[in-house]
Structures are given as C-alpha cells and as structure tokens.
Design goal:
The chain is 41% helix and 22% strand. The chain is of the alpha+beta class. The chain has 5 domains: 48-297, YVTN repeat-like/Quinoprotein amine dehydrogenase (Methylamine Dehydrogenase, Chain H, 7 Propeller), CATH 2.130.10.10; 352-517, no CATH class; 526-618; 688-802; 836-890, Erythroid Transcription Factor GATA-1, Chain A. Strand 24 (262-266) and strand 25 (270-274) form a beta hairpin. The protein is elongated. The termini are far apart. Residues 1-22, 203-215, 405-410 and 877-890 have low confidence and may be disordered. This is CNH domain-containing protein.
C-alpha cells in the first residue's frame, strides 16, 4: 500500500501530495487539483515543460515537478483550445474549435501565424524534419517550417482522398501515412513517394472486420520497431523495419478484456492502457499485465515523456504524475511477473547507451546463461558468458566436479560431460585473451557492447580476487581440462607464459609421465635446476643439451655446472652448448674461457677463441694473444711442423689484434728455420721495420725476388723518401752478395712499372753506390751497364715532371675559361639575328628557320657548324712537345 506526505496548497494548486514510491513499474508521485478547467495537456520534450490550456483560453506552463513557470492569459478569447504542441523552445502550435490553427510564440506572447480551416480533424508535427501535417475533410496537407527560427509555414504538398479523414498517423521514417476514414472499416496506408494506397491486413472473419464502423476512433501508436492499432478491444501489431518501407503485413493480434480509453507507451517496452477504472501497464510483446493502478475518476487527458513519467487529468480536474521506478525495481518486477528473458528484452529495448546499462544487462545475461547451463545447453550459455565477460570464478564453479574445482586428489567423475568442458575451454581462452588485452591498455579499460566498458572489476568481482588470482584460476583450469580431454593440448599451454599453479601441474604431469611437458613447464617457470635434474635422472643427454642451449648468460653458472659431465663424455658437446646456442654471443667470454682452462682442454680453448675472434669480431689483446699461444703450442708439439698450424699462425700474425712487440721477443728472438724467419717477417713488416725485413730476405732467406717486390710495395704504400731510402739499403745488401742481376732487375722494374710512374728515384745515390767501389770484394758496375736503365729512369722522371707542369697549366686555363664564361654570362645581352646575319664557319646567312648554337664568346653559328667551331677553339691551345735527351746531356 502506498504512503504519502501532504504539503499545504500553494499557487495554482488546491491540494498537493508527494507520494513515496514503491517498487512498482509506475508509482503515483504527485497528485493535485487544478483551480481551472483544463482543455488540453501536452508535455514538451524540447525544454522540459508541461503545457496545459484552460477553458478561458489561457495557457499554463509548469516544470516537471508541476511548479508553475508562467501563465499566459487569454491567448484565445472566443473559442476553446483543443490541442497544443511545441515545435521549438518558444513556439507552440495551437488549434481550437477544429476550425483554426494558430502559431504562437510563448516567449513574447504573440501570435505569429493563423491558418483558418473549415474542419481540422487531426495533425502531426514532425519536429526532426520541420514539418506540419494537417488533415481536413478529405485532404492531407504538408507544411514546411524552419526549426531554429520560425519564419512562417510553407505548403509543400497536398493529397486528396475519396472519404473524410478523421484520423491519421505520419510514419516519419518511411514517408508513409496511415489513414482512418469516417465511413470505412479498414485502415489504409498511403505511400507519399508512389501515391499508392495499401489496405492493411485486419483479420476480417465472417465478413466482420475488427475495424467496423462506429463512433470510436482508432488508437494509433508508433514505436521504434512496431505500429500498434487498437479499436474497442482489438489490438493489431505491425512490425516496422528500420531499412525497408512498411508493407502493412500483420505481425500479431490480441483481444483485450477491456475497452481502452487512452493509449501511450514508456521505454519502448510498456504499453499504458487507460480504462474507466484502471491504468494498466502491459508488456508490449505479449500484452501480459505487469501492474494495475486503480483510479477513482474518469481520465480525460493523458501524455507521457519516455523514460520518465506519464501525466493524467481526470474529470475532477486532478492532475496526476506517475513516475517510473528505477531500472532495478522494474527489472525485478518483470522477472517476478514474467521471466528473466523478458527482463533482458526490456533492457535491450532501452536507449541507455552507457556503462551502467551494460552492467545491468550483463548481470541478467549471465543469470540467463546459468539457467541454460543447468539445462545442459552448454553452447548457448558459453556464448553468453563470453559475450558479456562473465567472471571466470562464477563459470568455473558451475562445474561440480572436484577435479576442476581444485581437489587434485580426485579423478574426473563419469558424469562430467566432456563436450561441456570443450565449451568451457572456449570460454577460458577468450576470457584470457580479453583479460590480457585489458591489462595492457593504458587505463585498464576497454570499450565494449553499446558504449559499455570492460574493467578489471568484472574479472576480480570488484576486488574480491586479485589479478594474479584471476590468472591462476584461468590457466590452472585450462590445464586441468586439457589433462582430461586432450593431453596433446598441454604442451601449447605450458610452453607459453602461463600462471598455472605449479604444484597442480607438476603432480599431474608426473602422474601421467608427461616429462617433456614437465621440462617445458619448469623452463617457463625458470625452475631450471629441477628441469636439468629431471633430464639427468632420465639419462636424456640429447634434451639436456637442448635445454642448456635455451639458457642465456643470466644462467651461465648453471650451464657450466651441468655441462661438465657432458663435455667429459664428448668434447663436441661443448661446441653445441657454448657456440651453437642462440645465446652464445652474449655469454661472458672470459668466464667460458676460464671454464675450458680449468678443464685443461687446449682444443676447446682454441675452438672457443676462434669463435669469439672470427665470428664475434672480438679485438681484445688477451684473447688474441691467448689464441696465438695455443697455435704455437700445437705447432711446436706436432711431430713435424704442421702446415695447418703454420697457416693459422701466418694468417693470425697478418691480421690478428696481438701485441706485436711482445710476441716478437717471445717467439722470434733467435729464429732457426725459414718458417720461423718468414713468420718473423710478418711482425717486422707490421711494425714498419723495413730494413730488418730486407736484411732477413737477403741475408737469411736469400730471397731477392720478394725483396724486390717489397721495395715496389713500399713505393706504393709509403712516401717516396722512405721507399728510396730502403731501395738504397736493398742495393747495398745485394752488392754485399755481389748480386748484380737483382740490382739491374729492380732498377728495370721500377723504371718500367706504370703504377710507379710518379716516383722519383734517387739517381745520384744509386750511381754513387753502383759506380764507386766500396770494397774490394764488391765489383762495381761499368757505365755502359747502367746507361740504358739510367736514361729510361731520367726520361720517365722528366716526362712525369712535364706532365705535372702541363696538368697545372691546363688547370689554370680551365679556371680562366670558367671565369670568362661566368663573366660572359653576367654580361649576357640579347643577340639580334636578322636576314643579313652570317655564320662565321660556313659564311651562309642565318635565316629565320635556322637552328642555331651560341658560344660563350658571343658567336652564333649554325647548329651543324657548332662542332667545327668548337674544334677551332680547342686548337688555339698549343703545347710544346717533349724533347729527347741522352745521358751526355745531363
């Protein structure tokens, strides 16, 4: 039973009651008596006001709490206002006495426009399109007006029909009009675009239509997807399609046990039917009664604003406001009177696109999903749980078997439907993906269905569980299901980053002897000691090596510990672990090398040092010197000096990052063999100790050929002075061995080598060494032996000098030419070519049709003569020829 508090009368109110709402769908919240006789009632959704007209032609404006805002007296002096409708924030349309329509501005209380009609039967206002539709007798007239600033009505269309129209409904989205004629038993649908009339299916039976002729008008009610037509106790429902035109096909038919006086709707879900004694709230889908509100007086007027309330005025001039309860109470009422599905249907029809709506709908959907689950409709229930992000704890707990819930000492019972476990797997995989995505988002929120938002609270049940609890629950349950339905799926879970409960996984895998999966699980959990011990117990060296290859430098000590026995069995295992590993390049090199030193294995030291120096390009002196020491050790220990290690030492001495001086003194203080001398030569050459290189080549190795090549190399890589100095040293060494042929050979090669055309040989010093005897043991050269070589050398050097001078002259000329060109471009002026102009090359006239070429000096010639003129310019440069010389000319 309702209770209420009475407040003393104020203003225009005779009595005012504010009622305390209960959990009904509609509750009476305000009930008051007006001190005037009302003639029309309208609720404006534009600026949230209530408009009531009085019998004396005045208009009263109220807010939604029925507080008087404004009174506009005597809007109509002679006549009764039958209807009022707002078209914008200040303009209302009034029609009265069914013979005149008035556009009235309530802000300045002035009439803007008045249209006289003989008989207005009905009208519709299309606020979204700015249209006014009026029916009068057998006409439908369409007017257009500006919504923002009213500047008058403009008639745009007019349609004439055979019978008088007493009622119509303009279907705005379809550009169609429902027509109720005065003398017809049918409703017709008129299509404005095609000018066609369609007869609506009305379930005629025994030649008696439910729309039989009588004085009662039809009630026409349009919702977002339905059209409802009622007459007497008959109700027809037609389905409207958002994209297709209304085709007039009947959807449902209902027979009421009352005769409605008024109809309206709320929330696009409830039908409000008013009879002489009650207000009924019915479900729009099946017309099941949800609430009945008794009334004491006959209701004369009714209007509603969707999602909020309805207003009624009865014959005793009492205005009543019936407000909607909150959504939770309405859902509870629907669920109690009908079903959970109806509550869901109610929420899905609401235009509540916010997170609160999503949460309410989610709760109902999950409840419904549980009902389906208990009916063993696993597929549909899991689809609902996934779509509406059910808490994994709620869904997992639906499975009664203790094996799934976490009792590891239990085996799955026979009553578990493995098919249902497959659907649970699908749920957990999807929820796992969404949860991980949520954790990676910036604010831990993801937009979801109908402007809903997924938050962590949906998974943790508002903080009841932690994030890790959710992860452990999902992954451990997935693991348990895999162990029941398909053991082959376990590997895909334990090899990934997972949050499975370790004790559960280890126990199950050991019981099922799934050792490979257990090793992978240990690895994922970084429990490497247990994994390696397990592989040792299994005597699985192959997988033990593979496991060690998966470890990085952070676990290097562990790798060293478990690789020792493997290397003692086969030293090639060290290569697999420390070189073939994908993490080998990041190992701490000194630690690995010291490990091999402790094993006293020179071979592994050499292999590892070659790897880090050649493959990883390590330049440290320590590693390079260490590798050189091992090479020398193996070379010296071989029965005969091994060519393999000699080649290794040669290549390493040539390019290795070694300490040259220390290794020179360490290994080559007193070389004995030619191999040792040649190795020493490599270091001396890298130290640029050229005289020692030449001395060893001539004195120790008797290798004048390489000595000559070495001098030629010096002329290429060193400056002329250094190379010439060492040439004299070589000549002296060759003279000391009385090797005239080698001296002549080197002088000849140096004079004929085009690569060395720019060198300047020290001729005077060479002659001093060769012609003047230095010792009785050295036979000096005769002039005739050297004449041709010396002349060739002098000529070559003279030619080089002239070419150098010539190059300088040409460079200067090019610079002058460039400057002249630039100067000519700066002083460029138009050249006038007329019929009297001639070409300087061929002497012919330059006609208007000639193709011409202009030179920087200003000359203009025929295009075909340009090459000849260009050659003429080049010939202006004359250079002297080289003069032949003889030795006597010096």
């Amino acid at each position: 039973m309702k209770t209420y508090n009475k407040i003393e009368s104020i203003g225009e109110f005779i009595e005012l009651y504010y009622f305390i709402m209960n959990n009904d769908i509609l509750s009476l919240t305000i009930n008051q008596k007006l001190n005037f006789i009302p003639t029309s009632l309208s609720i404006s959704k534009i600026d949230n006001i209530i408009i009531i007209s009085s019998k004396d032609g005045s208009i009263y404006l109220y807010d939604f709490q029925l507080n008087l805002i404004k009174l506009i007296p005597n809007v109509i002096i002679n006549g009764i206002i039958n209807s009022i409708e707002m078209i914008n924030q200040s303009i209302i349309i009034i029609y009265f006495n069914f013979n005149q329509l008035n556009i009235f501005d309530i802000s300045n209380e002035k009439s803007l426009e008045s249209l006289p009609f003989k008989d207005i039967t009905d009208y519709n206002i299309l606020s979204n399109d700015g249209k006014l539709v009026i029916s009068t007798k057998n006409l439908i007239i369409l007017y257009q007006f500006e919504l923002i600033k009213f500047n008058g009505l403009e008639m745009i269309k007019q349609f004439k029909f055979n019978d008088k129209i007493i009622q119509f409904k303009y279907l705005e989205n379809y550009n169609q009009i429902l027509l109720n004629y005065n003398n017809s038993s049918i409703i017709q649908l008129f299509d404005i675009d095609t000018n066609q009339l369609i007869k609506l299916n009305s379930f005629q039976s025994n030649r008696l239509s439910i729309f039989n002729r009588n004085k009662n008008n039809l009630e026409l009610l349009t919702l977002k997807d339905k059209l409802i037509i009622s007459k007497n106790t008959n109700v027809l429902i037609y389905q409207l399609n958002q994209y297709d035109k209304f085709d007039g096909k009947l959807f449902k038919f209902y027979q009421l046990d009352i005769i409605p006086q008024f109809w309206t709707n709320l929330l696009q879900f409830f039908i409000i039917i008013v009879s002489n004694s009650n207000i009924y709230i019915k479900n729009i889908d099946d017309f099941i009664n949800l609430q009945t509100i008794p009334i004491s007086n006959k209701i004369l007027m009714i209007d509603s604003i969707d999602n909020e309330f309805i207003l009624t005025i009865d014959e005793d001039n009492i205005i009543s406001k019936y407000s909607l309860s909150n959504i939770d109470d309405i859902i509870e009422q629907i669920s109690q009177n009908q079903s959970l599905e109806k509550s869901i249907n109610f929420l899905e029809n609401l235009d509540m696109n916010n997170s609160e709506y999503f949460l309410k709908l989610r709760d109902l959907k999950i409840q419904f999903g549980k009902q389906l689950f208990y009916k063993e409709n696993y597929k549909q229930s899991i689809e609902i749980f996934i779509k509406f992000i059910a808490s994994p704890f709620q869904i997992i707990n639906l499975y009664s078997d203790l094996y799934i819930k976490g009792e590891t000492n239990k085996e799955p019972s026979d009553d578990i439907d493995k098919q249902s476990l497959l659907f649970l797997t699908q749920f957990l995989i999807d929820i796992r993906r969404i949860f991980n995505k949520l954790l990676k988002s910036l604010d831990n929120k993801i937009p979801y269905l109908n402007n809903g938002v997924i938050t962590i609270d949906l998974f943790t049940e508002s903080g009841k569980y932690s994030i890790d609890d959710v992860r452990i629950k999902i992954d451990t349950t997935l693991f348990r299901i895999y162990s029941i339905i398909n053991l082959g799926l376990i590997g895909s879970l334990v090899r990934l980053n997972n949050y499975c409960d370790s004790n559960t996984v280890i126990q199950i895998l050991r019981n099922k002897q799934l050792y490979s999966e257990l090793v992978d699980f240990y690895f994922q959990k970084s429990n490497h000691n247990k994994a390696l011990d397990l592989l040792i117990d299994l005597k699985d060296d192959h997988n033990l090596i593979k496991y060690l290859q998966r470890l990085n430098n952070d676990n290097l000590q562990l790798i060293l510990k478990y690789s020792t026995n493997l290397i003692l069995k086969d030293q090639n295992n060290a290569i697999k672990i420390f070189i073939d590993s994908p993490f080998a390049d990041n190992f701490k090199k000194i630690t690995v090398l010291e490990f091999f030193i402790e094993l006293d294995n020179d071979y592994l030291q050499m292999i590892y040092l070659e790897y880090i120096i050649k493959e990883l390009n390590d330049k440290s002196l320590y590693f390079n010197n260490k590798l050189l020491d091992i090479y020398f050790k193996f070379w010296n220990e071989s029965n005969r000096k091994s060519e393999e290690y000699y080649d290794k030492i040669t290549r390493f001495l040539t390019t290795g990052s070694i300490d040259l001086k220390s290794n020179l003194s360490k290994y080559f203080t007193n070389p004995q063999t030619s191999q040792e001398f040649r190795l020493k030569l490599i270091i001396l050459q890298r130290l640029s100790n050229h005289n020692q290189v030449l001395k060893i080549l001539i004195d120790n190795l008797k290798d004048s050929k390489n000595a000559i090549n070495y001098i030629k190399l010096l002329y290429e890589i060193e400056d002329n002075e250094t190379a010439s100095k060492n040439l004299i040293i070589l000549i002296k060494l060759l003279l000391s061995h009385n090797d005239k042929s080698s001296i002549l050979k080197i002088l000849t090669q140096l004079s004929l080598n085009h690569k060395l055309s720019n060198i300047r040989l020290p001729i005077t010093e060479i002659l001093n060494e060769l012609v003047t005897p230095r010792s009785s043991l050295i036979s000096s050269f005769k002039i005739y032996e050297l004449e041709s070589i010396i002349i060739r050398i002098i000529r070559s050097q003279r030619k080089t000098a002239n070419l150098l001078n010539l190059t300088q002259i040409i460079s200067s000329l090019k610079q002058i030419k460039t400057e002249e060109t630039l100067l000519s471009l700066k002083s460029y002026k138009n050249e006038i070519v007329n019929n009297y102009s001639k070409c300087d090359v061929c002497g012919l006239y330059l006609s208007n049709n000639s193709v011409l070429s202009r030179f920087p000096n200003g000359e203009i010639v025929h295009f075909g003569c340009a090459k000849t003129y260009n050659d003429h310019l080049k010939n202006t440069l004359n250079f002297p020829k080289l003069k032949s010389i003889k030795l006597k000319d010096l």
